Amino acid sequence: MVSLRPAVAWPVGQGSCQTDRSGYPDAMESHISAADAVQTFEDMIERVRSRGDVFVVEREGEPICRIEPIAPVRSTVRDLVRSLQGAPRPDDGYLDAVEEIAQNQPMLPETPWER
Questions:
Q1: What is the DSSP letter of 61?
Q2: Does residue 33 contact residue 1 with C-beta atoms inside 8 Å?
Q3: How far apart are CA 40 and CA 10, in angstroms?
């Protein structure tokens, strides 16, 4: 299986979430040098295919081309389950904080509208 993590760190922290012209809401756009694109091409293409990420390839700081999906990303419930299983579990401190916040929420006032 191809790792979705790049083989090297993406060189420029210019990623931004947006809706791009390929129709992917919240696709991640990253700027990457041509040299780094060559080194990470396999991972980059996998991210485009599986997550809808968009890459702007630059040479000497000038945008040269854009690599983006041409078809919508297809995900299944199985993909969601795998993603959730691979996500880190929250630590006990986090769960304790969420429980405390939930227990200390103020009561909502009665609604003025009829039910």
A1: T
A2: no
A3: 9
Q: Judge whether 34 and 40 are in contact, CB under 8 Å.
A: no
Closest among 76, 24, 30 to 52, alpha carbons compared: 24
pLDDT digits (tens, 9 = 90+) for 83-112: 889 888 889 899 999 999 999 999 888 888
Task: Say which residue the tokens 């485009």 belong to.
Answer: 48
CB 63 within 8 Å of CB 57: yes
Are the beta carbons of 54 and 68 closer than 8 angstroms?
yes
Sole residue written with tokens 């790049």: 6
Domains of the chain from N-terminus onward: 16-67 (3.40.1620)
Tens-place pLDDT, residues 1-30: 333 333 334 433 344 434 344 444 455 789
Please give the structure tokens belonging to residue 36: 């780094």
Residue with tokens 């210019």: 14
